[in-house]
Amino acid sequence: MRSAWAYILAFALLAGAIAGCGDEDASGDPSEQRSDGQRPATAVAGVSATAPATRPTPVAPIEPAGSWAIFRGSRSLTGYATGTLPDRPQLKWRFRTRGPIASSPVVAGGRAFVGSDDEHVYSIDLATGKRAWAFDAGAAVAAPPLVVGGKVFVGDGAGVLHCLSAADGKPLWTYKAGQKILGSANSARVHKDGREQLRILVGSYDFFLHCVDAATGDLLWKYESDNYINGAPAVAGGRAIFGGCDATLHAVSVRTGEGVASVDAEAYIAASAAVVGDEVYIGNYDGKLLRADLGTGEVLWAYGDGQDPFFSSPAVGADRIVAGCQDGKVHCVRRSDGTGLWTFEAADYVDGAPVIVGDKVLVGDDAGVLYLLRLADGRKLWSYETGGRIGGSPAVAGGLVLVAGEGGSVYAFAAEAAGGGTP
């Protein structure tokens, strides 16, 4: 059973996201700040429940093999990994922080990285589960870290984007957004003036998507939306794609910061979109899971009864989508036409983001239970109680599964160690 403080934290996070979506004036008047990019064209057609089936674009696995260096495993945020998992993963180690964890762990270079509400970013040795270093951010760190080019990029509750050395946690630079940062940063490489430039993109509650130089932290451009940005931007095809509390899916040129496409999602978006080619998958606050086409600006199908919000970022498999919902269920939907394939009833709301690994699905719920389900039919193979709400995404790399939750710990599961969950 969840403790009282866990319920309070979960409610506060949910209420904050909803209140932010509904209150455009809560963080001041963003119209006083000018965006360097152009606004997108007017959003287009609404939901079509009878759209013809289309052949899904193949999903690329995480790169490089053995890493999960970004939230959802790839820059397109698909939550998909190749390989296999045992039917009963075994606990290898547990790492405790001094506060609840809303962040999601990532993996790179033999280490895990995660933020905590205790205002620290941690680097953890994957082999031992021991702390490699800890960085004091000075504010709660709910955003998942991004690791690229030997650096860690992570935002905090004070709106500061930190760049740290992945080796020792040494601070390299900071960039200040106008409000808190809850979503992961993402990266893109742009060729300019005969050289390759690594760019970091991150959304904020100041309504802006910010793009900065990874080497210096200097602002390159910022794109203004009409409300809070909760999730991470996906990067695909030279575009940054994100939704927010303005009920719109935005596609922005990574090079120029100009809006290149938009889709009316018809309700607040609290999670991160998954992108494959021009296909975008996202859930909204009105209880609909959507497939949109950036090329046409249309919603191709909408799944759901419209009763309970989707706060979970969807996972994209070869022929199906998996997402959690606040009806307390995990939903599996056919990619091509949005037909429901199966549901799994969890112990509480499923705000956690699922990950598809081969023929299995990993997902956590608000009761703090991590589930391993069969992708074919949703049958539960295994579960493990962590003792605190799991609102983020598992990481899968090098034969390990890592998950964190509001109980304040990071758990690592592997096939070879003793211990584990319940059948």
Explain what the structure shows.
It is a single chain. With 423 residues, the protein is mainly beta. The protein has a single domain (4-82, 104-358), classed as YVTN repeat-like/Quinoprotein amine dehydrogenase (Methylamine Dehydrogenase, Chain H, 7 Propeller), CATH 2.130.10.10. The protein is 4% helix and 40% strand. The protein is built from one helix and 33 strands. The strands form eight sheets. Strands 1-27-28-29-30 form a five-stranded mixed β-sheet, with no helix packed on it. It has a four-stranded antiparallel β-sheet with strand order 2-33-32-31, with no helix packed on it. It has a four-stranded antiparallel β-sheet with strand order 3-4-5-6, with no helix packed on it. Residues 1-19, 22-53, 60-64 and 416-423 have low confidence and may be disordered.
Layout: helices, strands, pairs:
Layout: H1 4-22, E1 80-81, E2 90-96, E3 106-108, E4 111-115, E5 120-125, E6 131-136, E7 146-148, E8 151-155, E9 160-165, E10 171-176, E11 186-192, E12 195-203, E13 208-213, E14 219-224, E15 234-236, E16 239-242, E17 248-253, E18 259-264, E19 274-276, E20 279-283, E21 289-293, E22 298-303, E23 315-316, E24 320-324, E25 329-334, E26 340-345, E27 355-357, E28 360-364, E29 369-374, E30 380-385, E31 395-397, E32 400-404, E33 409-414
Parallel strand pairs: 1-27
Antiparallel strand pairs: 2-33, 3-4, 4-5, 5-6, 7-8, 8-9, 9-10, 11-12, 12-13, 13-14, 15-16, 16-17, 17-18, 19-20, 20-21, 21-22, 23-24, 24-25, 25-26, 27-28, 28-29, 29-30, 31-32, 32-33
